[in-house]
Write a structure and sequence with these properties.
Layout (H helix, E strand, L loop, with lengths): L1 E3 L14 E8 L9 H8 L5 H9 L3 E3 L2 E2 L11 E7 L2 E2 L11 E4 L3 E6 L16 H8 L9 E2 L2 E2 L8 E7 L2 H15 L7 E8 L7 E10 L7 E2 L6 E13 L2 E8 L6 H8 L17 H10 L4 E9 L6 E5 L4 H10 L1
Parallel strand pairs: 6-9, 11-17
Antiparallel strand pairs: 1-2, 2-5, 3-4, 3-5, 7-8, 8-11, 10-11, 12-16, 12-17, 13-14, 13-15, 15-16, 17-18
Helix pairs in contact: 1-2, 6-7
């Protein structure tokens, strides 16, 4: 594939004001017979295949000077012109919210998210979110899907603390989002996540694996359940780290990544997370009740996250220490 830079274009080519880049491609023998969106994504590293398809749908791609069809196949010698628009501004305000940054490079950022911080703006949380904080901190956003915003490839509940990664470029976003999606389905996506939680009572035994179907609760539709007749598979591995007063510090490793999976699996097994306002049970004694009140959230912390860097392919691993409120809960139950 031969690609011309904007400096090599004919002088009479007019570039519209909303076009950040104009790429001219010539199909070689190796690319011949391929779909145009795949050929574009392979030739322009900063574009994902989904982004290439979006540009085709918007009429920003021509094949031999004619507007390209989404499913078009290319032949050797074909010329492709790709207009990449300048990223638009996101209708969200950057906010100077302190962040604990574990790693940052031009493609991604890894943070230790505190409990209480909502990840993404939504109804009732238009400001004060992790996205607002990242918009302020990340001055080198290249744009995700044509919008200047950080790419959220996975989430933690508002009241769950710990390691999170967000992307800065379309290229990194496409690769990591696919890896997390594969992990959620239980496939090999190169993602490893471990959590620490306090359950009450302690699980039976030292370790085990929970394998269930998973879906919406049949009665309470805003909740999830592992006690369903049909649903997606969910697998959680657990190991008791430390016995506590009518409780235990438990390490969980996710094989799949369903919404609220650890909270639901633990609760449905009869040993819910201390302080869980949705899936928790009434504390068994006043000592546990006091710990739950002081904590004010579910006792769940995303302790480690490992993944392959979406661009360099280097294996990366990050760990977030237990926050003060979690450590206080442990101390009270020892």
């Amino acid at each position: 594939m031969v690609q011309q830079t904007p400096d090599e274009l004919d002088e009479d080519v007019v570039v519209e004001q909303d076009i950040a880049e104009l790429h001219l491609l010539t199909v070689d023998a190796a690319q011949a017979g391929g779909r145009i969106d795949a050929v574009i994504a392979a030739a322009i590293p900063d574009l994902s295949r989904a982004q290439a398809q979006r540009l085709i749908e918007e009429g920003r791609v021509t094949l031999n000077d004619a507007v390209a069809a989404k499913a078009a196949r290319v032949r050797e010698g074909d010329t492709i012109a790709v207009e990449v628009p300048a990223p638009s501004e996101l209708a969200l305000l950057p906010e100077d919210i302190p962040l604990v940054i574990l790693h940052e490079d031009p493609d991604l950022i890894v943070i230790d998210k505190p409990a209480g911080l909502v990840v993404h703006p939504a109804a009732g949380h238009a400001t004060g979110t992790l996205v607002n904080a990242l918009l302020f901190h990340c001055r080198d956003l290249a744009g995700i899907g044509g919008v200047l915003r950080p790419g959220i490839v996975h989430r933690l509940d508002k009241d769950t603390s710990g390691v999170m990664v967000a992307t800065k470029t379309d290229r990194a976003h496409g690769v990591l989002a696919a890896a997390f999606a594969a992990k959620s389905r239980g496939e090999s996506g190169g993602i490893s996540r471990e959590y620490l939680a306090i359950t009450s009572p302690a699980p039976p035994g030292r370790s085990g694996t929970i394998r269930t179907l998973y879906g919406r609760h049949p009665v309470h539709r805003k909740k999830f359940s592992s006690k369903v007749a049909s649903g997606k598979p969910a697998v959680t591995h657990w190991e008791v780290v430390e016995p506590l007063h009518d409780a235990a510090l438990v390490k969980f490793r996710l094989e799949t990544g369903r919404t609220h999976q650890i909270r639901v699996h633990a609760s449905d097994q009869g040993w819910p997370l201390v302080g869980d306002p949705v899936y928790g049970h009434k504390p068994r004694d006043e000592r546990l009740a006091e710990v739950a009140r002081a904590l004010g959230r579910q006792a769940l912390h995303a302790a480690t996250l490992s993944f392959e860097h979406p661009v360099t392919r280097k294996q990366m691993s990050f760990e977030a220490p237990l926050p003060a409120d979690f450590q206080a809960a442990l101390a009270a139950l020892r």
